[in-house]
Design brief:
The longest helix is centred in the N-terminal third of the chain and has 22 residues, at 10-31. This protein has one domain (10-242): Rossmann fold, CATH 3.40.50. The chain is globular. With 248 residues, the chain is α/β, with parallel strands linked by helices. Strand 2, helix 5 and strand 3 (128-131) form a beta-alpha-beta unit. Helices cover 40% and strands 23% of the residues. A 6-stranded parallel β-sheet has the order 1-12-7-4-2-3, with helices on both faces.
Length: 248
């Protein structure tokens, strides 16, 4: 029986594989939520804005760039200035999650001092709260709330240092992660953030970088959200929490 020498030729096999990869990548791009995609004009505008941020180092510009980059990868960002606003922002997030049929009853916290007031208030609201629950128990929690030691405006990335608080698993295991970051800890680039971390203290033995919800394209090259970690990320930017009127 005659066989065409072109069949199963390595070059043809390679071409078939490349066609399959291109088709899968096209499908992945279509599967990304619209809010997580940037048009060429938006990318250019973002680059221009970021160049201005690098030059001027303005805090409000850094926050704005960080927010835009964060939202471009499917996360959500809110800004607060008082303790009351922080609690309102958190309750707004919980209400939004509940409206999307997501569970919010069990909430795990890291041991950051900033979060203690939230722990007390949510416990009073009949939520089941726990500070740094055990590893096995964490898989039963709906939300993990932590602070972040720094953020990178260029990429919308959170930086969590393990020696500052116990937050690694709290930020990675529950399906929703809510992070609070100080506006003064938002840096323009990764290099600036690492440089500042080195100035503040010794380099942490474990640093977690978080850019948007967990995502992977390992499964048939199709983008999937929340496979190896939280599928929802909310960031609250603390612009200098001040006690509300009448508070001590």
């Amino acid at each position: 029986m005659f066989k065409d020498p072109a069949i199963n030729h390595p070059a043809n096999a390679r071409a078939d594989i490349l066609r399959s990869i291109r088709a899968s990548l096209d499908e992945s791009a279509r599967s990304v939520p619209a809010k997580a995609q940037l048009t060429p004009l938006e990318i250019e505008s973002s680059s221009i804005a970021f160049a201005s941020v690098q030059k001027n180092g303005d805090e409000s510009a850094l926050i704005d760039t960080f927010r835009k980059q964060l939202e471009s990868v499917g996360a959500q960002c809110m800004q607060v200035q008082t303790e009351a606003e922080l609690m309102l922002a958190l309750k707004h997030i919980l209400a939004e999650l509940e409206s999307n049929d997501m569970q919010t009853r069990r909430i795990a916290f890291s041991d950051a001092p900033l979060l203690r007031g939230l722990v007390r208030e949510l416990a009073d609201d009949m939520h089941e709260v726990s500070i740094v629950p055990g590893t096995n128990d964490l898989f039963g929690f709906d939300i993990g709330i932590t602070s972040a030691q720094a953020a990178i405006a260029e990429t919308g990335t959170l930086v969590l240092k393990s020696e500052r608080e116990r937050h690694r698993l709290v930020s990675l295991v529950p399906p929703v992660h809510i992070a609070i970051v100080d506006a003064k800890k938002i840096w323009a680039t990764l290099g600036e953030a690492i440089s500042q971390i080195r100035k503040d203290s010794e380099m942490s033995p474990a640093i977690t970088f978080i850019t948007g919800p967990s995502r992977t394209a390992d499964i048939e090259l199709t983008l999937a959200i929340g496979v190896h970690g939280p599928k929802e990320l909310y960031v609250i930017v603390n612009e200098g929490l001040r006690p509300t009127s009448g508070d001590n």
